[in-house]
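Subject: sequence -> structure tokens, single chain

Hey, anyone have a minute? Need the predicted structure for the following. Not urgent.
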Amino acid sequence: MFKYSDSNKRYYTLDYFYKHKFNSKVFKVSLDGGFTCPNKDGTVGIGGCIYCSKSGSAEYAGDKHDDIVTQFEKIKNMMLKKWPKAKYIGYFQANSNTYAPVKRLKELYEPILKQDGVVGLNIATRCDAISDECLEYLSDLNKRTYLTIELGLQTIHDETSKIINRCHSLKSFEDMVKKLRSRNINVVVHIINGLPYETHDMMVDTVKYLSNIDIQGIKIHALSILKDTELERMYNETHFKVMSREDYINTVCDQLEYLREDIVVNRITGDPKVDDLIEPNWLIKKVTIINDIDKEMKRRDSYQGIKYKKSF
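Reply:
Had a minute. Here:
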């Protein structure tokens, strides 16, 4: 459990969690398994969420043209230059990484588990991209390694969900969280601040909701408007208000105050591809955003969970 007095942060960071769980620095090795998404291939929608790039690739992921072990070695060796004594978590990041037959999932996941120094897997996906057969396989994996499933929720608000073309309901998300937790599988949830027309209170309400369900981690991002996305087209047509740096910092600090204290903050701002970024330009300076969130929490003399109240 996080102890504020033992940390240089006022919230429960992933780095703190890993160091105490594994007694070591741990970094994620981002991998691209060549997955697609039910919201891109026509199963539930076409084109994906409006902020998704056409490639769906992640900034620091491996090259999907390489086999999965080659990807792992290349990214691992690059990151070892910074953290030479670290352990690793295989991170399947791009698109929906459970959206394939279990046979294919095993071909991708199992070789990573065999690599020296790997202590776990993080698998990013959607609640509607996990079949019952997949759930049983994930349950087996969870008995053999430290497994985390990352679910993209982004917002609890139906009106925003329609705008961003998420194409799944809040109930579907809730049901999948329950299925994963009934198998003791850790769940991390992605949310986005600054979605079109959302107010400050709506963003805080998303975190209040998440604090009252059984999740183990959260990732907080600011909305990135990227080139060649539906979101870019919408922005050019409607000129919806883009969140300012100051509003983002203030909103995140408010969210942290309502966030249950045992939920691990896996990320507190995003890493958009600089060459693809249209707005907001302040996202490029990630470290300064994190530092200013720390400063604001200190100025408030506040910490994660100070305002959390369990509701039923």
